[in-house]
């Protein structure tokens, strides 16, 4: 078992050639030792969830989300009802039919930040490319779910490593650069606030790879790699280490600009086609964004929030005069 005094180095083991080939581009699996850590024991997470719920009421930061579990791959996140339970919420997962997460657990307890930093150094070591200096925002999220719960098909902005701690589950992971599977317009809508923008197309399921997760197995989810999850017959606990990089944030800003250009009737160039055009589009929103980013929202959305605020008087004027 890993204890507080353990040497936390060598927490992951990987096929280095596969890691270098696929990191940031395609999903792949790896082995880890995080499930040996007492930080992710059920009772410990019960206590951290209660602390996160209390802190979240007081200020922006960590969050404890407790919802009813969904059962369909194409369900919307809004279909899941909020659950009020905090006390013993985690330890009663076996029978509660729930889906929970503690977002930004590092802000609840600094021990998790130490572990996150160790893991990021490990990832950088095996990636053999500079990573930590390119990270704008990183966090650790703990996902907890009752037996047989489904996490619907969706995309995330962050690069992600998902470590299975307790229980088994299957995760379908899709390549992020397949534009038939994930059209540019869906990505643009996602980056302007529609978390359900990515639409599941059952006929394209064979383009995904199903990974079987069990304690000691992890997967890498590249930014915008669509995925959905089906839990096994036991309670599942997974730990996500996720981060925004300068490159992924820049691409997000291009997609955001493209969304508005498309609304003006234009057919904007997708990111990656012209360095100059991308630089102009991303540069504008980067100027409006908060620096340094102190949250995921700061890194990805603060530019368009400010843009909307700048245009608000114009929208009000048009409404009043039309
Ligand atoms: Fe996700």
Short description:
With 322 residues, the chain is an alpha+beta fold.
Give the key terms.
2 domains, Jelly Rolls, 322 residues, alpha+beta, binds fe (ii) ion
What would you say this structure looks like, in words?
It is a single chain. The chain is α+β, with helices and mostly antiparallel strands and 322 residues long. The chain has nine helices and twelve strands. The radius of gyration is 20 Å and the shape is globular. An eight-stranded antiparallel beta sheet has the order 1-2-10-7-12-5-4-3. The chain has a four-stranded antiparallel beta sheet with strand order 6-11-8-9, with no helix packed on it. The protein folds into two domains: 234 residues, Cupin (Jelly Rolls, Sandwich), CATH 2.60.120.650; 75 residues, no CATH class. The structure holds fe (ii) ion. Fe (ii) ion binds next to loops.
SSE topology:
Elements: E1 12-13, H1 16-22, E2 28-32, H2 42-58, E3 63-68, H3 93-96, E4 98-103, H4 110-127, E5 135-145, E6 150-154, E7 159-166, E8 169-173, H5 184-190, E9 209-213, E10 217-221, E11 227-231, E12 236-245, H6 246-263, H7 275-288, H8 296-300, H9 302-321
Antiparallel strand pairs: 1-2, 2-10, 3-4, 4-5, 5-12, 6-11, 7-10, 7-12, 8-9, 8-11
